[in-house]
Design brief:
The structure is a single chain. By secondary structure, the protein is of the alpha/beta class. It has 27 helices and 26 strands. The strands form five sheets. It has an eight-stranded mixed sheet with strand order 5-4-6-3-7-8-2-9, with helices on both faces. The protein has a seven-stranded mixed sheet with strand order 1-10-17-14-11-13-12, with helices on both faces. A five-stranded mixed sheet has the order 19-18-21-22-20. Helix 21 crosses helix 23 (693-706). It binds cytidine-5'-diphosphate (CDP) and magnesium ion. Magnesium ion binds at residues 122-123, 213.
Length: 892
């Protein structure tokens, strides 16, 4: 047999500590100014204080010095009318047995950490406990944050159902969507939504309790929220409006929250809910398959299904494309026939629509160019003071490490000959990943049709956020898709990597929810012992300019001293601060000689009005700057489209991949020719071409919308239909955001748009450049060549190595002298993607932060400019760090 067996105990010791911290001497303003220094806790109520040395009473046993009345304890009990079935199901949940312990701990402590196996009932039950105990009475709200949108939506629905309350009482709010009403008592939201609320009301006065759910996932927003709440809670106590903070976590690595004195000077009590976990037998593979873990999953599932007794199968893969590919193979092998959903009617007049789309873009003969138009850096969309959208969310999208938009769908890889359908029981195969439509996600919670076996093929959403009933077998490929960033350059790539031991154990645990189960790990125990113990918190793995901007918008200036549960490196913080200064989002510090790294890090640059506007857009700061400048010359609809397209990224199907067989090879080749021709058309003519890949994106979106955005049109032209749909959705969202943030802009969103005029193309190039100032590259001219490796190469200030225009770029053959790029992706070489050409004379005028200007004494003498009535002079300039000479710029 090819498996080793290990029995894995799933229980663990519980630990409990009890302590109190409920007062702060500092006023709110002081905390805002210096949220960094830990707030010294002082005891206000002698009767309740426990000396630090004394042994805390174990949770569950009444504490001896427990006061007769607790000021923070609500007096009311709110009855809930649950159906008998629901009540019966609830009583089976391990957390129900702990209700009293949990509620006592919450009543006696401002901060409580609650740990319990996935499925023990934390998310669905704790809000109900609180509600029944009166925490949601009067105008108070119980707030719960989730790192994933999926969880916020499904959990609010589940809790509403369990409590027999309508969705305007148990509600959810995700970025631009929600059903919160004045009646809302329990509010599920994404962590980004709560962060935005803190910006409006630092004390979160409407909330009586905040639950930070899934804290073990260590999403950046969750981490920041915990840091902020560690300061807000004592302030609220001081004001006589106590706020309770409950941190809920699945795995047991909670020391970052409990042992971090900077965060919580007094260790919060930890309550461990012992889940009724049935034993799970873990089977390791003897050998670890090299690459084809999807194939290995397929074989393993076939074996389980044919040979093992009934019980659902849950498979962990890394991304959406893999999930779909495996689902297809399994459905083919063990077909389940149901009423087929009617196929989408084929597009009737596709040919006609397409010609129109082509015509529209061919017609885009640009108007005559005016002499070098320039955008105005000071003319940005401004935020109205103290107004704006109620519930905005900071991040643009759940990445969830799934990188679903970046996958190549390799179709049914592997030979089909030996995959003739099998006569076994039908397999009811369901995909599950974060971007799956909610109604499709909900299917996994229902029992499978009788006479079938359930098989859920999932990404790591199923690891902790959602508990699928009836799973007896887990198949774990051991991998996870992660986004990796280069700390210095921000060069990013998605890589499938081994997961951590903690995650692998979580996955295994999914098999033992209802009866003893089995977990099949498609890797050896030797490989497992090399896994890192826990996954690194996200905040240590990515650039943080967006977070720093959000914090500055909260008037937290010394970000370096912020009580992060796990702080990002100082280098990362400095890089972020520098980028934000360069973008004009933070006030540039006075240049007083050379600053050391530490001095710089401690600089507390305040936010600028432009920075505030940027902080309110739900996109990364570079793109936010583009949006902020975008209203000029009627460019906003194009800027929105470009930003949406850059955020969604892989618009085009990958056609360079090796074909699976000869037949496909012919198809791919034919398609590629056609797609290249289309891209040429989208790239425009004359000056429009200079916008490069961004013009291609604009053209593709334009043509697609003209054709009515059909799957057929996308398929024929090498566009990914899903990406195009996502772009449309984002364009709508960004338009809404701009409309609500900028009183001087009122845009009507029409998905169809005319191509930009020639001068607009120039403005767009400038707008894009002003957001991507640190992503400028200069061509190495043939006469400068020292090394053959630099042929057709570009130099950037970021990297020593040469970078190249990606062969699929529309500027690949044109090799402009100066370009900006969206990002560098490392494959066989360092390739720039999303390339646009720029004019060097724009750099000193539009990116002053990146330029050194010549000594005024050496510059040509000043002159009087009649047109403006001002005295001006020309200043020589060079590009920072690298010293590239740039054209002279005229200054006042
Ligand atoms: O948060 P935690 O992982 O501790 O558990 P939970 O999400 O509160 O789930 C408790 C139970 O409710 C599990 O057994 C789930 O299967 C069940 N549940 C359900 O049946 N339908 C949902 N939509 C959500 C949860
Ligand atoms: Mg949960």
């Amino acid at each position: 047999d090819d498996e080793e067996q290990t029995d894995k105990g799933m229980s663990s010791d519980s630990s409990a500590e009890e302590d109190e911290s409920d007062a702060s001497e500092k006023e709110e303003e002081m905390v805002r100014d210096n949220v960094s220094s830990p707030v010294k806790p002082i005891d206000t109520d002698v009767s309740r204080s426990t000396p630090a040395e004394s042994k805390p009473a174990p949770i569950g046993e009444p504490s001896k010095d427990k006061p007769a009345t607790l000021p923070s304890q609500p007096a009311i009990f709110i009855p809930v009318d649950r159906s008998p079935e629901i009540q019966e199901a609830r009583l089976k949940l391990p957390i129900l047995a702990e209700e009293q312990v949990i509620m006592e701990a919450i009543q006696e402590n401002p901060v409580v950490v609650l740990c319990g196996e996935t499925g023990s009932g934390k998310t669905t039950q704790v809000p109900q406990f609180l509600y029944e105990a009166g925490y949601g009475s009067e105008n108070d709200i119980i707030g719960i944050t989730e790192p994933r949108r999926v969880a916020a939506v499904t959990m609010s629905q589940r809790v509403a159902l369990e409590m027999n309350l309508p969705q305007n009482v148990v509600s959810y709010q995700i970025r631009y969507e929600g059903n919160v009403s004045p009646e809302t008592k329990i509010k599920f939201m994404t962590d980004g939504v709560l962060l935005k609320e803190i910006q409006k009301d630092f004390l979160l006065k409407r909330y009586r309790v905040i639950i930070i759910d899934e804290a073990h996932e260590r999403s950046v927003y969750t981490d920041i929220l915990i840091g902020l709440l560690s300061r807000i809670v004592p302030l609220r106590t001081k004001k006589g409006l106590p706020l309770k903070l409950i941190i809920m976590s699945a795995t047991l690595r909670i020391e970052d929250f409990t042992e971090n004195k900077k965060l919580f000077p007094i260790t919060p009590p930890v309550i461990k809910v012992d889940a009724r976990q049935f034993p799970v037998t873990v089977h390791f593979n003897k050998r670890t398959p090299l690459d084809d873990y999807v194939g290995e999953c397929f074989r393993k599932i076939c074996k389980i299904h044919r040979m093992l007794p009934s019980g659902g199968i849950l498979v962990f893969l890394t991304g959406q494309a893999e999930v779909h590919s495996l689902c297809r193979r399994l459905r083919k092998m063990f077909p389940y026939r149901s009423k087929q959903e009617p196929k989408v009617a084929a597009e009737k007049d596709e040919a006609v629509q397409e010609t129109e789309a082509l015509k529209a873009f061919k017609k885009s003969k640009p108007k005559k160019n005016m002499n070098l138009p320039k955008i105005n850096l000071d003319n940005y969309s401004a935020l109205p003071v103290d107004e704006g959208d109620e519930d905005r969310e900071a991040g643009v999208d759940d990445e969830e490490g799934e990188g679903s938009d970046f996958d190549l769908d390799l179709g049914d890889a592997g030979s089909d000959e030996d995959e003739e359908s099998d006569s076994s029981l039908p397999l009811f195969v369901l995909p599950l990943y974060s971007l799956l439509a909610p109604e499709k996600q909900a299917k996994v919670f229902r029992p499978p049709p009788s006479g079938t076996r359930l098989c859920v093929v999932a990404t790591n959403v199923a690891e902790t956020s959602l508990t699928i009933p009836g799973i007896k077998y887990v198949v774990d490929c051991g991998k996870v898709k992660k986004r990796f960033y280069d700390k210095v350059t921000g060069v990013s790539s998605f890589r499938v990597d081994w997961t951590s031991q903690a995650s692998a154990d979580q996955r295994a645990g999914r098999a033992g929810r209802t009866e003893p189960g089995h977990c099949y790990r498609l890797y050896s125990s030797a490989v497992f012992s090399d896994f890192e113990q826990f996954s690194q918190p996200e905040i240590t793995r990515r650039p943080v300019e967006d977070l720093v901007l959000q914090m500055k918008d909260l008037n937290i200036e010394k970000v370096v001293n912020f009580p992060f549960p796990t702080p990002p490196s100082t280098d990362t913080l400095i890089a972020a601060e520098e980028l934000l200064i360069a973008l004009g989002a933070l006030v540039e510090p006075l240049k007083t000689g050379r600053l050391t790294v530490m001095q710089k890090a401690k600089l507390s640059c305040p936010i600028t009005p432009l920075g505030r506007t940027m902080a309110s857009f739900p996109v990364a700061p570079r793109y936010a700057k583009m949006l902020a400048l975008g209203k000029q010359h009627d460019c906003l609809q194009y800027v929105i489209t470009i930003v949406a397209a850059m955020t969604v990224r892989e618009l085009f199907e990958e056609l360079d991949r090796p074909a699976l067989n000869d037949e496909e090879n012919v198809v791919l080749k034919g398609k590629k020719g056609r797609v290249l021709q289309m891209q040429k058309i989208w790239a425009g003519q004359g000056p429009a071409q200079k916008l490069g890949d961004l013009m291609v994106m604009l053209g593709a979106v334009g043509a697609c919308e003209y054709s009515g955005l059909t799957p057929t049109f996308c398929e024929r032209n090498g566009l990914r239909f899903k990406a195009m749909m996502e772009i449309r959705r984002l364009r709508g969202q960004l338009t809404t955001a701009v409309n609500s943030l900028c009183p001087d802009v009122s845009m009507f969103f029409n998905s169809k748009m005319q191509p930009p005029s020639e001068s607009q193309v120039n403005y767009l190039r400038q707008i894009v450049m002003s957001g991507l100032g640190d992503h400028i590259a200069r061509r190495i001219r043939p006469e400068e060549l020292l090394d053959d490796a630099w042929r057709n190469a570009y130099k950037t200030p970021l990297l020593e190595d040469p970078v190249f225009i990606h062969p699929n770029s529309s500027l690949f053959r044109q090799l402009p002298d100066f370009v900006v790029f969206q990002e560098i992706l490392e494959t066989t070489k360092m390739y720039m993607k999303g390339v646009s050409s720029i004019e060097p004379e724009w750099i000193p005028a539009l990116l002053p932060q990146y330029c050194h200007y010549g000594d005024p004494l050496e510059d040509p003498p000043p002159f009087y400019c009649e047109a403006t009535g001002r005295v001006k002079c020309h200043r020589q300039s060079t590009f920072y760090r690298v010293g590239w000479p740039l054209p002279a710029v005229e200054v006042d």
